[in-house]
Amino acid sequence: MSTARLLPDLLVVQTGTAARDLVAKHGDYPTWFEEALGAKLRLLRAHEGERLTELPAQTKGIIVSGSPLSLTAPEPWMDELGDRLLRLGAAGVPILGVCFGHQLLGRASGSSVVRNPKGREIGTVRVQLTPDGRRDPLFSWSKNGEIAVQQTHVDVVDRVPEGAKLLASNEACATQAFRLSETVAAVQFHPEITPEIMRDLIGTRADAIRAEGGDPVRLRREVRDSGSTKILRSFADLARHS
After folding, report:
1. Does the reported pTM lie above 0.90?
2. Which of 71, 85, 163, 239 is 20 to 30 A from 3, alpha carbon to alpha carbon?
3. Which residues are 126's β-sheet partners?
């Protein structure tokens, strides 16, 4: 039986478009999730005005993508989408926010999204799982309290939303992952990004990284396979059994 047939029907809510050079070589954000999961996924382009009103039939879960847009200057559709996602989660739909999606869910739950006072975080980095994180089904594959992930962001959720469980943290960003409820969780990092995409992504940010005092050559050299695509597999398992 193929991997695709084992996966539940998942919807990717796209919240932006990757840099042109990345899209030309690797496809856009939804393609990255499809390749990470080995399956064709449903798609809703929220950044192009498509609204998440009723879920397509048979949809078992929702993944909210990253974006070059910023929730430090939110547009009306962003707040509408965040509220809708929380309502769907409360109704029992499994939801996973990734990067911008993580920040969207954090803002919808009462936290603020701010520029990271510690600066840009990009490349393959390590995050520490909290006790709740070690017990969380998204990270059940982890053998210890620390995992490697692919990361690219300049904004952060300033604090864990009230009532949420902090799942992961590191020195660069205290709120790396949280769970709002049994059905709704979010990660600041990118389980869908491969080492190849990350190296090219660092290349598209090279001038900015240098201007900030960073070394894009070193960052590219240190990129490695993180194995964090397992987070998406774990989410798919949760959606299958929801």
Report:
1. yes
2. 85
3. 148
50 is catalytic: no
Residue 3 pLDDT: 45
Q: CA-to-CA distance for 165 and 120, rounded, in angstroms?
A: 24
Token pair for residue 88? 């769907």
Q: How far apart are CA 169 and CA 44, in angstroms?
A: 30
Exactly one of 26, 47, 153, 190 is catalytic; which is it?
190
Per the CB < 8 A criterion, the answer to whether 189 and 150 are in contact is yes
Angle value at C-alpha 71, between 148 and 105, nearest 5 degrees: 65
- Please confirm, yes or no, whether 192 is among the known catalytic residues: yes
Please choose, from the candidates 63, 62, 69, 104, the residue with its C-alpha nearest in 3D space to the C-alpha of residue 83.
104
190 as an active site residue: the answer is yes
Residues 130-167: pLDDT tens digits?
999 999 999 999 998 999 999 999 999 999 999 999 99
Q: 198, 181, 185, 88: which is closest to 139 by C-alpha? A: 185
Amino acid at site 90: A
pLDDT tens digits for range 195-238:
999 999 999 999 999 999 999 999 999 999 999 999 999 999 99
Phi, psi of 70 (to 5 degrees): -125, 135
Question: Which of 26, 99, 121, 153 is labelled catalytic?
Answer: 99
> What structural domains does the chain harbor?
3-122+131-145+152-193+228-240 (3.40.50.880)
